[in-house]
């Protein structure tokens, strides 16, 4: 039994509990933090004192009309820490600097045409250094960098189901190579899970501990949040709602199956409907596609009707399987598309886990908007540093045996 090690882990866990409680519910007094966390008042005071050198919290008197000394409220200091979000595909590389409050302080976007590791890694490094120089933020305040890619991430490395827009990155050790260049912690995730974490920290997911995020883009992905933590599965590939069979024997999918949801709901499917041709699984002219939506092109209106039907069935399956507090629909697409899909889905959204109230309390639009992917990437380092890790307690229990 390693008492010292266990005590240190418990202290680290408690620090994260306090910080996350203030982030989610602040401003809070010390007494309110103690009540919400179940920790003693002295423990909370000790932890807050430990945060002071790093400036993670801001203390300010609460305005009250009563007598006596007003309690001191605690809020997160957004300038106390920062993280980088890095997102790329076959069209562009986007790098942002995010503060602890979820605000993007600076960003750079570069067009790319051949996103191979040899080309992109130096561009990532240069973009990060450019933003550090521009903002004059000390490296000591940077908690790390998160990277998202338009591929699945299995056991820490990129993988793909069928053709990919970035084939040269499959099984490439992205995090390891970028960590060597940046000398910062680097976190890699798929775009759907990263976007779900971003929504949990800074968007519509803040009010929930359990939700399913549907990521609509060129493909369709899913991010699962359970007990305020992402669930990635045994091999890091959970939430792949895009490859649920929606139409048995239907359209062929690069994954090898037929009738996958992605072949009916994704922007790739919308593009095929717009062109009135089979899907090519190649590059899509998104600007032209979005102009078609704005003009309410009949082909795209028909696609919306079909996509909503398939998506409704998928959401019902998600609710029946996971019983989440909500399903959040988002991704790097205009609000007009999300609004149109939600309006078509809500009226007949019925599942076994149907709860009191209307469907709009269960199906929500993401709040992070077009920045969802890169904001989610930037959230990875912040989430890792702030959110309590219950696996620590499991390790502690194992060692105690």
From TrEMBL:
Pfam families: ROK
Superkingdom as given in the UniProt entry: Bacteria
Family, per entry: Belongs to the ROK (NagC/XylR) family.
Name used for this protein in its record: ROK family transcriptional regulator
Species of provenance: Neorhizobium phenanthreniclasticum
């Amino acid at each position: 039994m390693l008492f010292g090690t266990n005590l240190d882990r418990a202290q680290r866990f408690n620090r994260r509990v306090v910080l996350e409680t203030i982030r989610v519910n602040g401003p809070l007094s010390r007494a309110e933090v103690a009540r919400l966390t179940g920790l003693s008042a002295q423990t909370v005071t000790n932890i807050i004192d430990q945060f002071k050198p790093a400036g993670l919290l801001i203390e300010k008197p609460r305005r009250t009309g009563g007598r006596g000394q007003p309690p001191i409220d605690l809020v997160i200091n957004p300038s106390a820490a920062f993280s980088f979000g890095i997102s790329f595909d076959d069209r562009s590389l986007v790098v942002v600097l995010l503060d602890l409050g979820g605000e993007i302080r600076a960003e750079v976007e570069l067009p790319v045409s051949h996103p191979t590791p040899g080309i992109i890694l130096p561009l990532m490094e240069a973009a990060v250094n450019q933003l550090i120089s521009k903002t004059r933020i000390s490296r000591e305040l940077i908690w790390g960098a998160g990277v998202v890619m338009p591929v699945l991430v299995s056991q820490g490395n990129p993988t793909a189901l069928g053709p990919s827009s970035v084939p040269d990155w499959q099984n490439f050790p992205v995090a390891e190579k970028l960590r060597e260049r940046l000398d910062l912690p680097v976190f890699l995730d798929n775009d759907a899970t990263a976007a779900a974490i971003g929504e949990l920290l800074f968007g519509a997911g803040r009010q929930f501990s359990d939700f399913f995020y549907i990521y609509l883009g060129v493909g369709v992905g899913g991010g699962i949040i359970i007990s305020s933590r992402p669930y990635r599965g045994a091999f890091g590939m959970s939430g792949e709602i895009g490859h649920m069979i929606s139409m048995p024997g239907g359209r062929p999918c690069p994954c090898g199956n037929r009738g996958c949801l992605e072949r009916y709901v994704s922007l790739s499917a919308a593009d095929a409907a717009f062109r009135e041709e089979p899907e090519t699984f190649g590059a899509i002219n998104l600007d032209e596609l979005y102009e078609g939506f704005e003009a309410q092109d009949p082909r795209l209106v028909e696609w919306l009707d079909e996509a909503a039907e398939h998506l409704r069935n998928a959401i019902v399956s998600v609710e029946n399987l996971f019983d989440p507090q909500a399903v959040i629909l988002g991704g790097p697409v205009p609000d007009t598309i999300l609004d149109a899909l939600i309006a078509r889905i809500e009226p007949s959204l019925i599942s076994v886990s149907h709860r009191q109230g209307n469907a709009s309390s269960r199906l929500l639009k993401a709040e992070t908007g077009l920045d969802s992917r890169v904001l989610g990437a930037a959230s990875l380092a912040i989430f890792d540093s702030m959110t309590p890790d219950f696996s620590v307690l499991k390790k502690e229990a194992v060692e105690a045996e």
